[in-house]
Amino acid sequence: MLARAVPSVRVLFCCIAPLLLAVIGCGMAEALSPDSPGIRMLEEIQAVITELAEQAKPSVVNLFPITSTSRLHEGSGERTPNASGSGSGLIVDSDGHIVTNNHVIGDANEIEVRFSDKTKLIAHVVGKDPDTDLAVLKVTTDRPLPSARFGDSAGVKVGQWVLAVGNPFGLDRTVTLGVVSGIGRENINLSRYENFIQTDASINPGNSGGPLFNLRGEVIGINTAIINFAQGIGFAIPSNMAKQVIEQLLAKGKVVRGWLGVGIQPLTAELAKKFGVTEGEGVLVNEVFEKDPAALAGIKPGDVIVRIDGAVVDSPNKLSRLIATLIPGTTSKIEVVRDLKRLTMDVPLTERRDAAVIASLPQQEEKLEVKLGLDLQDLTSALAEKFKLRESKGVLIAKVEPNSRAQAEGLREGDLIKEVNRLEVSSVAEFMSAIARSRRGDTLLLRVLRESRAFYVVLKAFD
Q: Which candidate in 97, 103, 320, 426 is catalytic?
């Protein structure tokens, strides 16, 4: 029934706006007659949605992590329906594997699973991936479980209708209808790799880990978060990302990701002009870790990465996400802009480590005030120790003038200037020589090291 009804829905949706106008123009009594063509159209759409809801609900489960506190109440009956840590999950195969959010299960090793038929089982954790906030559980059962099928989230479009199913506040298998409000949402600061689907289908505490369905009954996302104090702003992890994580967790119990070995930052309008690209075209490499894939392939600080295996790179988040989807050992084609030229490099990736290896950059004393809002002096071993710098030479910022351009760009005491206009400087004398080549009104491109991280800043040379 669903497969037959869905294609006709596209036509019916196009008729909704004219139909409503007809309702107003022809009189409410006649238009709302049970035999009205408009009512029949709306009832057909309604039937599709209600059938979808009935088909979707059995694959959604209610989860309660078992903690030392919850064990104290095991003999006293039911746990409270909106107990802390409770959430939703989705059965992904008939063998009893369940996907949910990592933050739903926390540190629990066992989770009580409540099914749509009111039965309960205990699940154990197969694997977790905090970087995407996903986890896979497993229950042992002698009967096949109703599972959902995944769709292709790459085809999701803004405005399409979706159903969210979950257990908000312990209200089992609550169904809400809405639309996709946005795609590719990142910088939400919920996880390391973000590419969220935004929806206005109501998502509340307890919905986390539940599915987001399209009208074909396919899972296109795993609901994960809402914005507090806002209405109709919820986020779901795209199904394609979830499928990749689930496959690795089932096969290995963990997720293995590719590693490039660079530090990156977004391109502001000023930086883009300096590096000869348009704003938002690519991301800027501000450091390259020694002996890592990027360094071995010849990528350098100041390169702008614009494509990875043909996919456009327009934000640091997207670059990290693209690299993370690649398997260690594979060779990736990375396109960069260097000195206004486009280069493509073959880069064999290694496995991402939990902590990045810090690049060691090259290797004096004197104090000088320049008209940049900075007091500068040569780096000494004592100063390097004070500011946690793993360097022996460089131009140290000893003071930043209040309300100066340098302060506005985020520079601060203890930062180490390593380059001026792409030329390395290791002393104040070299710094002054470099800026002496600038004319009034020019801008300076500085590469700055702060503790263990590097970044680029653009400053106007003189007042």
A: 103
For residues 9 and 136, which has the higher predicted lDDT (pLDDT)?
Answer: 136
Span 128-144, mean pLDDT? 93
Rounded to whole angstroms, the Cα distance separating 420 from 425 reads 7
State pTM to two decimals: 0.68
Between CA 264 and CA 334 the distance in angstroms is: 14
Q: Given the residues 208, 239, 320, 332, select the one marked as catalytic.
A: 208
Query: Is-contact 41 23, C-beta < 8 A?
Result: no
Q: Choosing from 133, 200, 303, 378, which is the catalytic residue?
A: 133
What is the model's pLDDT at position 229?
A: 67
Side chain identity at residue 112, one-letter code:
E
Distances from the Cα of 139 to the Cαs of 5, 65, 115, in angstroms? 34, 13, 11
| Least confident range of 8-12, 70-74, 85-89 | 8-12
**CA-wise closest residue to 262 among 308, 320, 322:** 320
* Rounded distance between C-alpha atoms, residue 415 and residue 37, angstroms: 72
Radius of gyration of the chain (CA): 28
Contact of 441 with 461, CB cutoff 8 Å: yes
Contact assessment for residue 450 and residue 415, using Cβ atoms and an 8 Å cutoff? yes
Q: What is the residue type of 261?
A: G
**Amino acid (one-letter) located at 365:** E
3-state DSSP helix/strand/coil % of the chain, to nearest 5: 25, 35, 40
Indicate if 133 belongs to the active site: yes
Reply yes or no on whether 97 is catalytic: no
Residue 362 has what pLDDT? 30
Q: 103 an active-site residue?
A: yes
Q: Are strands 350-351 and 258-259 parallel, antiparallel or unpaired?
A: antiparallel
Please report which confidence band the pLDDT of residue 40 belongs to, taking 50, 70 and 90 as the band edges: confident
